[in-house]
């Protein structure tokens, strides 16, 4: 397959994105616009200066800038605009289903009401479903650098809007904040009816993935790269067909990997893992879904069949009904 054919295939494929932080899709242009209308100053003078600052040596260096950027979001309209910008962008890339994270505590800690955040996001997702035909799930993530008590407070705040939220995630600074810190609040979240996923094994060790499985009882692992260090864990993940939401450009930008050419994606597929490709924080890491697919496919020379398998995996790994999964996979087969 030529490079042109590969790009065409990836652009045409109907795709699902399962690992996307809405706050991480905040493009500098929109950040300046919202800061201006909220009469807030950001520490950068121009869009170019912002982009220049997006050079990270690890997860924490990124998170510091990510939380600062999110600090200009105050009103329901701001959260709507953020979400709508993401949806229109991925619509142009043929993404037909999204399961997106938001971090309520990033905003409630600054005094923005939970309801303001949630309704802004939800109204944009509904409009995306209606106008762009993008189906969605919404995932509320607890920040792992904060206490379990704070996560419990967030769970409580969410209950009035339970019908609008599908699942719980766990993100932010991984190392030093192991899954066991959140065991009780994940149990309570499951009892409230939420599905569960957690970032694990991005920078943290394989033992955090075991913890996410056995203590948090997740339905999906976000990242999970470091499972490869533990043969028994890989076997368990493969046997259970536990989805892993990989984010290649994020891993590259946060120095989880040195080169995309070394991305162990094929090795993971050969071991029978249910892996998917996602963008994580596209405005910070230089690429949405198609860029993640294309750059990875070129770097490790993915075949047409491997690319199609990855696109199908995302529907299998999603929280769509079995019927919807089948329908989406049939649409892919019809492209051949
Ligand atoms: N929050 C936003 N992006 C994240 C990532 N890649 N890991 C952990 N927390 C995050
Ligand atoms: Zn993430």
Brief digest:
With 336 residues, the chain is α/β, with parallel strands linked by helices. Helices cover 51% and strands 13% of the residues.
Q: Indicate the structural class.
A: alpha/beta
CATH architecture: Alpha-Beta Barrel
Give, in spatial order, the strands making up the sheet with the most strands: 1-2-3-4-5-6-7-8
Bound molecules: adenine, zinc ion
Low-confidence stretches: none
Average pLDDT works out at 97
Element pattern in H and E: HEHHHHEHHEHEHEHEHEHHEHHHH
Number of helices: 17
Structural summary, described in words:
The protein has 336 residues and is of the alpha/beta class. The protein has a single domain (3-317), classed as Metal-dependent hydrolases (TIM Barrel), CATH 3.20.20. The protein is 51% helix and 13% strand. It is built from 17 helices and 8 strands. It has helices at 3-12, 28-37, 47-53, 59-70, 76-91, 104-108, 114-132, 148-158, 183-191, 206-214, 231-240, 248-253, 265-270, 282-285, 289-300, 304-317, 322-333, and strands at residues 15-21, 95-102, 135-143, 167-171, 195-200, 220-223, 244-246, 275-277. It has an 8-stranded parallel sheet. α5 (76-91) packs parallel to α7 (114-132). The longest helix is centred in the middle third of the chain and has 19 residues, at 114-132. It starts with a helix and ends with a helix. The model has no long low-confidence stretch (mean pLDDT 97). The structure holds adenine and zinc ion. Adenine (ADE) is lined by residues 21, 24, 59, 66, 171-172, 199, 202, 250, 280-281.
